[in-house]
Batch of 2 targets.
Target 1
Amino acid sequence: MSEPHPSLSTLGWEHFFQQQLTRQELAETVPVRVFAAQGNSVDVVGATERSLLSLPGRWKTLPPEDRPTVGDWLLLGSDGQPARLLDRKSVFCRNAAGQDTRVQLLAANVDTLFIVSSCNRDFNPSRLERYLALALEAGVEPVMVLTKVDLSDDPSPFVIQARQLRPGLLVETINSKNPASADMLRRWCGVGRTVALVGSSGVGKSTLINTLLAATVQETGAIREDDSRGRHTTTARTLHLLPGGGLLLDSPGMRELQLGDCENGIASLFAEIAQVARRCRFSDCRHQGDPGCAVQLAVDAKELDPRRLNNYLKLLNEQERNAETLVDKHRRKKDFGKSYKKSMAAKLDERSRY
Ligand SMILES: Nc1nc2c(ncn2[C@@H]2O[C@H](COP(=O)(O)OP(=O)(O)OP(=O)(O)O)[C@@H](O)[C@H]2O)c(=O)[nH]1
Ligand SMILES: [Mg+2]
Ligand SMILES: [Zn+2]
């Protein structure tokens, strides 16, 4: 017996997407959600079908941010081919790893980000701050999920450290292998809600997804004994529909999360530093031994955490290194804005004729 197809709202369809369609598109196109995207092929799920499509030639020349990524909504034309990519509610991107300075999209239309870390040697506050900055930049609610609580004699130091990363941050401790323990995460997995799981390799993202799905859909792999690191078992980003509603996005543990355009996310995450920095003598103070630096004074007085200051400066530097890319990106955004406005004007024009 084949499984019943999910409704569009189960897949995360909402007014925000619906209102982007012209009358003609409403009549002639079919919305589908991208469950996986690899190269030029996209695995899409709609209310009546699931199919693996090849992107038509014209999509291949588009900049990465205008091509479909996992979580995106696409309109399929009457020929069954992708016709248009809908505007995103939220998007995660990073600068591609290594020398490549291009932007790489990680996921779109995510409601909640589970930042997964385990209660062991792999726990690293500065790395978690990268993910937090990413979530805040995208306007997506972050939840810190600390796994392997069953292997820890006392998980409380990890919880305390995680809570210090951001005032009011939600921190959950679980055993990813235990359904009763993982259940507490279901409150973020309501019908049509999309949760993305990120974190280093081996922290238990795929294990958690299997447990919540009550099925083994994702392969998992043992971590290395010597340093608790994972073996990069998951290699692609994929969406999974939970039987009771909700969508989970598994992703490969990242070796390197190079932050791209993340200025606002960083400012929001390190708000306490920005607040003290207003008292620095010079408005362009780098907080690195500059005269009259209030931030340095606050660190000396133990009012600011030196680790946080270091990470803040490091992430800001990363921004500057990526500046050239960002200039390109902003130019593209501007061009995109122009064409978007033009298409919106055309759409409104079309509507006013009915
Ligand atoms: N005891 C215990 N083991 C866990 C827990 N979570 C994950 N594991 C184990 O940790 C190992 C790695 O889990 P995965 O789910 O493959 O980790 P991942 O985050 O998906 O890793 P990548 O796909 O490499 O990014 C597996 O052997 C899991 O069985 C947990 O909460 N408790
Ligand atoms: Mg995995
Ligand atoms: Zn300063």
Note: Residues 270-321 form a domain with the Ribonucleotide Reductase Protein R1; domain 1 fold (CATH 1.10.40.50).
Target 2
Amino acid sequence: MHVDPLEKKWMYVVALITVVMIASMTYAAVVMNLHPPSNVETIDPKTLHLSGEFAEDNLGVTTNPDGSVTVRMVAARYAFYPQLIEVPANTPVKFRITTPDVLHGVHVPFTNMSTMIVPGYVSEVNTQFSRTGEALFLCNEYCGLGHDYMWSRLRVLPAD
Ligand SMILES: [Cu+2]
């Protein structure tokens, strides 16, 4: 089979790009331990606000016996509840977020805190914030007409 030399060159370029991409993904997964959040835990979106972990009284920041922090939140059109989260810096933080209505997302700019929030599932993200100060907690999945106004605040306080 005849392959044009120019075409052959581009085949090598494409093969090289593919190898570089697969190598960088493998490096990120194995060496840097970067994985997409993958927590398969289901919840009934129709009743989550009535009782259990995501009832209104249980939302917010809880300090665990080992000093780490768990944050429980509900994302609903068009806000995150609670509206202000205060967490200590340099402390492991576990976010547990769910939604009673449609697909949402959450993203805190300049950090690795980012996940999708899918109805029927509990999204869980483990992270840690090193910089103190205030950041925005933004919805990054289009969820309806009020999506642009869907955000709350995250305040990172000095650890002591
Ligand atoms: Cu949204």
Note: The longest strand covers residues 69-76.
